[in-house]
Design goal:
332 residues, alpha+beta, Alpha-Beta Plaits, six-stranded mixed sheet, four-stranded antiparallel sheet, globular, binds (3R)-3-hydroxy-3-methyl-5-(phosphonooxy)pentanoic acid
Amino acid sequence: MTGSEAAVAVAHPNIALVKYWGKRDERLVLPCADSLSMTLDVFPTTTEVGLTRHSTDLVIVDGAPASGEMERRIVRFLDLVRERAARTERAVVITRNTVPVAAGLASSASGFAALALAASRAYGLPLEPVALSRLARRGSGSAARSVFGGFVLWHAGAPDAADPDLASYAEPLTDARLDLALVVVLVQTGPKPVSSREAMRRTVRTSPLFPGWLAATRADLTAMRAALAAGDLAAVGAIAERNALGMHRTMESAIPPVNYRTSASHQALEEVRRMRSGGLQVWATMDAGPNVKVLCPGEEADHVAGHLRQLTGHTVVVARSGPDAVLREQAP
Ligand code: PMV
């Protein structure tokens, strides 16, 4: 590597309170609808990108060379950065996750946010954060949101925008007033059966519920923004839960169905409902995997985590609001 053309970036995963599920443009990764998330303070990804004189890119993920689809996606992303920077050098990418990849724990969000930041710096492409979110989006849609900390809105962009790439970006929500925690129940940490990319494509093309999902998620987004601005935790929780369950029902209606929920997920969801009936302020959300994340007031997170640990027997991690993606001075 040549010292001055290397950079290290750290980014955190985010969990959507109003989900992104469905693309209207696969190449540009343009979503069908806006989505809204909270960046977490746990499970960061650290990525180092250094330019090299070698003729191919080398990608190391969690200590082992990447191969197959994962390597292709990262190399394609580097090609995009090189094209924009008008550079041709290959790169060595060393990335470390603190969470298992492809388990529906948003490792692609933190991964591509960290890669976008480190690669754009290493290739000398000066990007302000909103532009960085557009670039990260091309790697993995949800990565656009991990560029920012706290509550984040990702704009789908108007379908008739003059430049649709420019119109679809993330930005922090400055009027959100809520101390929200997300308690992650690690039901399972193995790779998922179907990639979110394939699952979304199948849902858009074949699920009879997809048009209804789009209308519902757009309404949820408007209601969620109002609930966050009002600091109304009960409304935030209820909207987030119905949105996540609606997303799962929609993909489960695809042909063939996409089933990320396992019996252990259903059991955890049931425990959340039971805890709520018992008077606790808890609501569930789920992504493209079997793990269940439980929203609750920040000051009750440890108590809720203790309950969930005991009731489900799974590993439970408390997550709170996390920071922006940042560059780090030294190599990890
Ligand atoms: O960014 P992707 O392609 O991994 O899609 C993520 C989709 C969900 O996590 C299920 C929802 C979301 O908005 O993050």
